[in-house]
Write a structure and sequence with these properties.
UDP-n-acetylglucosamine1-carboxyvinyl-transferase, Chain; 21 strands; 2 domains; 4-stranded mixed sheet; alpha+beta; binds shikimate-3-phosphate
Length: 445
């Protein structure tokens, strides 16, 4: 990635989005299906796996630690696991690319295996804080040598005799929760995670599905208390990965703001810990109907019928942030086209994603001609009232190796006069390799 030249592109709408498209598999669920499949004894079969760079980094790491992972001719993936506690010493460093989820969850897995593993990543990942997992995993008994500030590159030596911990999450983070639970898999006794603010629950659902002894209760203060009994025998599963709501989000917003659009986005995962964006967009006046609701791989799924809509600004309740934490870049784009003011707050976590998404989106949208004010924990956006944004001149906006900044600003380009020039589209492949092709299939590109 670092040696290949950047791939700039100007995004401008050729027409409305129409027809039916299908979004690729959920990134969070794809990572977890590879990891848990690699710890089960026997063959796990995964249909609909997201074949993005982030998930491939997880697959390469699990292979390096002993699992067999192969793509079948029909597109399914088969994972032959090593059993809980069976991970092997990898021969070299594990390159996590751009993927925070791979890094933090795998650190959890390694923490309770007596292995020494070096984790590396790209420039974006090497800026992201790992202290949030180093803390609890040190309590489990793992030892760390990290770059200053608790960053990658990092060497972890897992515990010989891991200790079950009780950990109260100081930040609303599914990655931290999952790292502690995954460490608990090869730890004797009961590992407990207390989650004051609920975050995506794919790890809990999937651990349960693989046969782990896991309970979830709500305590007197409304916090979720998750208890995992260590050293289960995980049973291989057949998994169908639902479509990623975080990928669908770009098409839903594009259809709302590009005049004349009328599109069905099929196979969208609507787990309530993930789907808040669609409720927020409806509250802004977005016409989004759920068709054919069903269950796929134990997760609620529907097809979303979206029509271009006159949006109005709102104040977004910070309580919904964890359930749409990855969707703010594209929500900001919707807000830039809405009538009136949109106020967001409680977004501190956005500053430590693949980029600082608050500053990156303020800069990018401002360059495209939107009116944006940055606060410490959010953005305030004065919308255009449905008028196209002016777009950018020949200076490309900077995506900071962040796929979601690139895709959000591509969507902004579709609702602009001159289009939006993006400095580099390569990061899109981390989560959504087919993004531009699918956009073209709707007629928008
Ligand atoms: C993820 C959790 C979220 C999210 C990320 C995927 C996961 O991160 O932003 O894209 O799969 O657990 P945090 O746990 O840091 O909020």
């Amino acid at each position: 990635m670092s040696i290949a030249p950047a791939l700039p592109r100007r995004f401008v709408a050729r027409g409305p989005l129409t027809g039916r498209i299908r979004v690729p598999g959920d990134k969070s669920i794809s990572h977890r299906s590879i990891m848990l499949g690699a710890l089960a004894v026997g063959e796990t079969r995964v249909a609909g796996l997201l074949e993005g760079e982030d998930v491939m980094a997880t697959a390469a790491a699990m292979r390096a630690m002993g699992a067999q992972i192969e793509r079948q001719a029909n597109g399914d993936w088969v994972v032959a696991g090593v059993g809980v506690g069976g991970l092997l010493q990898p021969a070299g460093a594990l390159d996590m690319g751009n993927s925070g989820t791979s890094t933090r969850l795998l650190l959890g897995l390694v923490a309770s295996h007596a292995l020494t593993v070096c984790f590396t990543g790209d420039a974006s990942l090497s800026r992201r804080p790992m202290g949030r997992v180093i803390g609890p995993l040190s309590e489990v008994g793992a030892a760390f040598t990290a770059y200053p500030g608790g960053r990658l590159p990092l060497i972890i030596t897992g515990a010989q005799t891991p200790v079950p911990i009780t950990y109260r999450l100081p930040v609303a983070s599914a990655q931290v929760k999952s790292a502690v639970l995954l460490a608990g898999l090869n730890t004797p006794g009961v590992t407990t995670v207390i989650e004051p603010v609920p975050t995506r629950d794919h790890s809990e659902r999937m651990l349960h599905g693989f046969g782990a002894d896991l309970t979830v209760e709500t305590d007197d203060h409304g916090a979720r208390v998750i208890r995992l009994t260590g050293q289960p025998e995980l049973r291989p599963q057949t998994i169908t990965v639902p479509g990623d709501p975080s990928s669908a989000a770009f098409f839903v917003v594009a259809a709302l703001i590009v005049p004349g659009s009328d599109v069905v986005v099929e196979n969208v995962g609507l787990n309530p810990t993930r789907a808040a964006l669609f409720d927020v967009l409806r509250a802004m006046g977005g016409q989004i109907a759920e068709l054919n609701p069903r269950t796929v791989g134990g997760e609620p799924v529907a097809d979303l019928h979206v029509r271009a809509s006159a949006l109005h600004g709102i104040t977004v309740d910070p309580a919904v942030v964890p359930a749409m934490v990855d969707e703010f870049p594209v929500l900001f784009v919707a807000a830039a086209l809405a009538e009136g003011r949109t106020v967001t707050s409680g977004l501190d976590e956005l500053r430590v994603k693949e980029s600082d998404r608050i500053t990156a989106m303020r800069e990018a949208l401002t360059r495209a001609g939107a009116q944006v004010t940055e606060r410490a924990d959010g953005l305030i956006i004065e919308g255009s009232g449905g008028r196209l944004l002016p777009g950018t001149d020949d200076r490309a906006i900077t995506t900071h190796l962040d796929h979601r900044i690139a895709m959000a600003m591509a969507v902004a380009g579709l609702a602009s006069e001159r289009g939006v020039l993006i400095d580099d589209t390569r990061p899109i492949a981390t989560s959504f390799p087919a993004f531009e092709a699918l956009l073209a299939a709707t007629g928008a590109l």
